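Deliverable D4.2, example record:
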Amino acid sequence: MGSLYRSNRVAMTIVTVLIGTVGISAFGAPASDDSAGIDPFIKMRWPGNAELAPDGTLYYVFNPDGINQLYKVPPGKTQDDAVKLTSFEDGIGGYSLSDDGKWIAITASVGGSEQADLFLMEAGTGKLETLFTDPNVVYGGPTWRRDSKAFAYQANDVSPSDFHVYIYDLETRTHKGVHADKGYHFATDFNSDGSKLVIGRYNSASHSQLWEITLASGALRELTPADEQWSFSAVGYLPDDRMFLVNTNYRGDLKTLYAIDTAGGELKPILSDLGGHEVDGAGLNEDRTILAVTLNEDGYRTLHVRRAGDMNEMPIPPMDKGVVSNVRFRGNHMLYSLNNGNTPGIIYRWDMDLPNKPGVALTKADTQGIDVSKFSLPELIHYASFDGKQIPAFVYLPSDYKKGSRIPFLVYYHGGPEGQYRPSFGRSFQYFMTRGFGVIAPNVRGSSGYGKAYIEADNYKHRHKSVKDGIWAAKYLIDKGYSDKKMIGAWGGSYGGFMTMAVITEAPDIFGAACNVVGIVNFQTFLEQTKAYRRHLREAEYGPLSDPEFLRSISPIYKVDRIETPLMLAHGLNDPRVPVGEAMQVAVALKKRGVDVEELYFPDEGHGFAKEANRLLYYQQLAKFFESNLKR
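Output generated by the structure prediction step:
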């Protein structure tokens, strides 16, 4: 496919799609000055994914240059003294700091392809070594052995459909395979002396398993029940290695913590007093004596700290309601961040020996001079869907909203589908509210955080139930007097992009504009063309390729004749998850009908827009698009 664009760093604004195999013709079209007001909102930034080394060095990922790179702040210094450690053209995917703080395993890919390579950095000198690089292989999931002399990782180098587990030895600079089987496998935790490794296999959102490998012999034993299908996520070994903690919905609905006896396999619940909400995740300190647990409370994430031996409650630092993340331990200190509607995710360090004192901010946010303390906080509501099912959603209203007035609204659909909208710091939402828009973000059936029954409620033949939930979110706005037909926009990315396309084909009279970002429109071509290692996982959710009739029935591409909503498409040309052909199918189908479509394709992006220059152009076009189509 040939293309013409301003430069390899800038998106293409598509004006004409030529039917056939010739390809596309395009030229760059900058957004109008009216939409540039969104720029300072999108340029807001703050460090994330922080780790504290034993010597007090703070590591984090940050993008002051517009692309995520790894930085460090030396002991006793501040963020103003941060040292940039990486300069990958397309940024890093992630990093993992060894327990002794001397080594850093780094993953990075090219142009949003997600075909991550694996690198090793000497923390003291910043010297970077390429360990594994192959444009056809994904390397990832580095998990350090506790002596910091080796780490486990995953790679699909033998079969593109399957991830095997390997160990890399830093002393010999060699690697060896420790587990090879069909499926998506990954390392989770080494035992105390490094003689055993627990690995996981992810089959679907409702079924994942754990095995313990004795590395010297290669003996493999499943820790999770072999004849039952439940979700098991690893937390880690307890100090004596006799118990392994997991987060699971074992024989229940909501996920909670269990301890598995590594010798006999018995499962025992350990947090019965924290019932009523799902456990989001958990983590242990270095000597495995302190456990941090985060609970999913209707989308908010709350922190609880326990002594791992008796599970007695420990103090936590005072903090506002929001989404707690980045919980890490180092010695007697705990790192954490808090994020909500008017609070960016600042990283704090809290001294557990001084429990009555608040955490100390280690990072700061660049808010572009905007007073974020005045940003609106959302209201958690529940609306009745088509069958009476109560669907949770967050509603954002402009600060000057007058009750009873009908205003333009955006319905934002999250990705996944096993995702969840969380009430975190949303820069684009806040911009639209300054322009008089409201936003509703529903967690439709199939969303995570509400239990096994809810996350499975949209699987396979039940796909239309979640679509109806998305339509009824808009109907709620109309029924409650917040908005009106054709004043409501549909917007979402990935699975949220599918939801966007589905609701405008099933309820074309309601929506006045729609933006589909990297979304699925044809489930058959999506499953055929997505990366091989993702295909089985997605078939478990959407339905198998062996059932093409059903896949066709839920694919919006076959209902484009119903679309009467102005549509914007945005996609990365290197998208490995939802290939760009999904967007182009819609564009071609609508243009055959003589319908104009706004298209934005980025040649150096994948499943989302990682580079700031690209994000700015996307949001400028998005703001202009919704302003022109939804405001009366």
